[in-house]
Amino acid sequence: MRLPANELAASAARKFVRAALAEWGSPPPSGAPAVPRPPLITDRLVDDAVLLVSELVTNAIMHAGTDIEVACRLESGPGPLVPYAADAPKHSGVVVEVVDHNPSRAVRGGRDAWREDRGHGFQLVRALAESWGVIYRRSEKSVWFRLETARSTAKPDDSVSPSTDSAATDALQPESRAPEILPPSRSRPTRGRTAEWVDRGGPTFVAEAGELLAGQLDEDMVAAIAGQLLVPRLADWCGVWLTTDSGAMRLSRVWHTDERCIGGLRLALENDPPPARLRATGIPWPWPQNADAVGAGGSALLFPLVASGYCHGALLLGRTGVSQMTDGLVRLAEDVARRVAHAVATARHYTKQATISRALQRRQLPEFLAEIPGFDTAIVYEPHGEGQTVGGDFYDLFPMGDLEDRRWCFLLGDVMGHDVEAMSVTGLARHLVRLLAREGHGVESLLGRLNIALAEESVEAVALGGEQAGPRFLSLLYGELEPDPVAGGARCTIASAGHPLPLLLSADGDVAPAADPQLLLGVSEGAEFHANSFHLAPGETLLCVTDGVTERRRGNRQLDDADGLAEVLRGCVGMGAKAVAERVRRAAHDFGTGPIDDDLAVMVIEAIPVP
Fold this sequence. Notes:
Distance between the termini: 65 Å
Oligomer: single chain
Helix content: 25-40%
Strand order of the largest sheet: 1-2-3-5-4
Structural class: alpha+beta
Number of helices: 13
Strand content: 15-25%
Radius of gyration: 34 Å
Number of strands: 22
Low-confidence stretches: 78-91, 109-121, 152-192
């Protein structure tokens, strides 16, 4: 059975295994020849198999992150396996296998975790299974376990003696009494089995639950994982509420062993939310309508999600057919609720910080780039890091004054670092450049004043934050364009302060640096800077990049070794600005085999050829 990696996988796997065991545990059809019966599949074996496959599927989804395959088979002793054949051997075990497609993500505890080596994620499997193991293949990883079926030598017309052991008593011969296997909609561990599991596997379960929850940075995902962990291990159903900014409770997730009951249970819980400020734990809760399909009723307890003195929500657990939950189960649920609460608090703190960062980041880059008449421009910007919108690189292109001035400024910079402090320097630099340019400062004067500001900022940062704050250095490529309305193109004045040098591509394919190398900004308060001037003629292209391009590595080589970037640009003759920018971006990605480990920015300015 193939399952997608989502929150329904564990439930589907439980249904699949339970249905298979129910089929194998049924007696042969009426009127069938008298042959040896199928294995004695007890209620306990079914409970163990369903519990363990849920554990393995959950583990595969959380750690492998791929689609999974679940297989369940009967395993016999020596000889052929021929069901209902007169000479067939009796089945001796049930084997369940969970396969994922991420073999590089090893099982915690190592390849030999099935032996006596101490692992971290499979103590429950070791405690319940007769044997288990891990098989690594080239493109997949398989984790399997085997449960031994009840043994009996009774003939078809035999009965079970009262003196037989409890396992055999639970599994009477199919002809005399079929094993009582509840359908999926009503299945749950018996009270005695749950108490046994709480005592034996509870501490491991709490530890693994804390590990799974700790890495989540989305509060609704925390609620979803909590529901999948708790049902059906501790309860037949559960609901998770989370507090809102207004102090109310919103129902985030509802889980049930019977998916048909989820809609009705959700409606009942939404209409009767708990109070937002809870302090007591294990509060008895009225049994909701539609909580079970047969109206058997049961016991429900509410656990507040309290962390750091603040209530982040509530967890409601329900067990069908019992009047009161055991003390051990309540204590275990309290432990899990505390871990859920801390995970929610951590996720909310991350979300708050991410929201602040995104608000700051929106001001680090221009909302749009100005269009220069007679020129084609393009920007490629890829911040390093998953989910990042702005990194240490930044860019801008804007008119110096009003449109009648016909002068344009452009810049491409890179701040040392990728943290919030680096982002603050990015904002300072970009806005200060705009201010100085519009006050009439030329390229050299502007770089000098920006250098003084950054040097002073570094001194203040160290004074306020200690030596660990450190100085902030900035590489910057800054230039001005003054278009020539008669001949076309523009006079370009440009300077590079510690930045990869801009390259000029002529119409006939020659490539040359367009500026001289100079010192980084912020290193020395007394540093002086000079600019280079040239005519950017129609058909010529100016390429500006950050070191995410030039320092892209392949082993010990960098892309710009032996003028590698110039060679890439030389092959762009006749291309428009956007095509050139894309060619350079692709060259940077293709140069190395792994992902780019720095921010990447490319700016292209092309003087449109005169028709």
